[in-house]
Write a structure and sequence with these properties.
The structure is a homodimer of 209-residue chains.
Chain A lengths: L9 H17 L6 H8 L3 H7 L3 H24 L6 H18 L3 H11 L2 H27 L7 H12 L1 H4 L1 H8 L3 H24 L5
Helix pairs in contact in A: 1-2, 1-4, 2-3, 4-5, 4-6, 4-7, 5-11, 8-11
Chain A binds a DNA duplex (30 and 30 nucleotides) through α3.
DNA sequence: ATTTGATTAAAATACTTGTTTAAATCAAAA
DNA sequence: TTTTGATTTAAACAAGTATTTTAATCAAAT
């Protein structure tokens, strides 16, 4: 063998990282293979040498993106040793950390989800299935005991809407509120405490069937 | 002149509507001019006869989409004759109506906003400027009087996050919660009352600097 | 009936882009 | 040193696609 090995990070990983960056930011159709090669600092022929086609490379990136985005969600909700409040707080914090580092991921996910091939649908269930059943069981229990009246749908919609939407809508929010990048960061820091508090208020207040 | 006139809706409008449908759903790069022509039931040459290029056609659609999406926001907030609670309720209801009819619009807007050319930035200010100053003035007043501690940034983020995000994230929410299209509609109907109520709770509770 | 401008049809053109190929180069392993 | 496989270089190839062109056709206005 020679310098760039198959296993370690070198070349194959360079290609994947360049592809991830461009695919995630611009989508499949708007990304050219030549751009990926240039971004990776490698030759175009290498793309087809390592991955057979643009489509195959994209599929790999897409699956990894899905796993990364949905994985976090599941991990925290599955932990039965924590109170619901604590779990919410951890999920919110984990997502704010995560999205600060990878701000383009959610929009990518939402775009891909719209095309909705069954391949993706299965992936979602696979990644989010266990946590979902656990969460729903507890929410429905709490509802029976009168602790909360918040339907699981609204719960998830509110949690994701309040936590990940600000990142998706960052350009819009910054324009509307005249917030600098630094101010945006500060607002997101505030949200680490505010969102769990708001969710708590919603769960106590009345909230749909 | 002949059958299809320039002024009335006929041909030019057919092209624009076909283009709007495809551009809004699939984006610029993934939309082919041939598809637009076919969708409009017209000859391909007509596209370049009426609009000079795919890009020019796209720009027109994009601007109209922006105006439509942001215009509603402004219209209701500018009305000083209403209480804040009433305005919130109207904006939420107007957006739920609007997004039920045009569910692909917000994702289109968010995608375009990411590329952020100054052309778009100006458009946002133009459409949303007046309502913004009006809204911010009142929110800051209310804050002084101790009526609310909710920062304008969080107010907008929450309002949009709770109202438009569910439509953007519909495929994700439906998968995670196993909700049918019919159930989704029902949840959105519930939100017409729930979201204004939640926003009200947030404005009374403590909320950021 | 003639004219006029919209519309179609069919192709040609030009450019972009995904993919492949063939021959060199180069670094390490044998 | 020889060999081996990764990497480069430079093209070529094959589709796909935006755009243009040219010559018909067609419906209404004159």
């Amino acid at each position: 063998m020679a310098k760039g090995k198959t296993k370690d990070g070198s070349t194959e990983e360079k290609i994947k990282e360049a592809a991830r960056k461009l695919f995630t930011k611009k989508g499949f159709a708007a990304t050219r293979t030549r751009d990926i090669a240039e971004e990776a600092g490698l030759n175009l022929a290498l793309l087809n040498y390592y991955f057979r086609s643009k489509q195959k490379l994209f599929d790999i990136i897409m699956m990894e993106n899905f796993r990364q985005f949905l994985g976090g969600m599941s991990a925290y909700f599955a932990d039965e040793s924590l109170t619901m409040e604590e779990r919410i707080s951890r999920v919110v914090n984990a997502y704010i950390d995560f999205l600060t580092e990878f701000p383009d991921l959610p929009l990518f996910i939402l775009n891909e989800l719209r095309g909705n091939p069954s391949k993706i649908a299965m992936k979602v269930n696979e990644e989010v299935g266990p946590a979902r059943s656990q969460l729903f069981k507890e929410l429905l229990n709490a509802k029976k005991e009168g602790k909360t009246a918040l339907d699981p749908f609204h719960f998830v919609a509110n949690l994701v809407g309040l936590t990940v939407f600000p990142f998706v809508g960052k350009p819009l929010l910054q324009r509307v509120t005249n917030a600098s990048d630094e101010q945006f960061r500060a607002y997101m820091e505030e949200r680490r405490k505010l969102v769990p508090m708001w969710i708590g208020m919603m769960m106590k207040g009345s909230g749909g069937s």
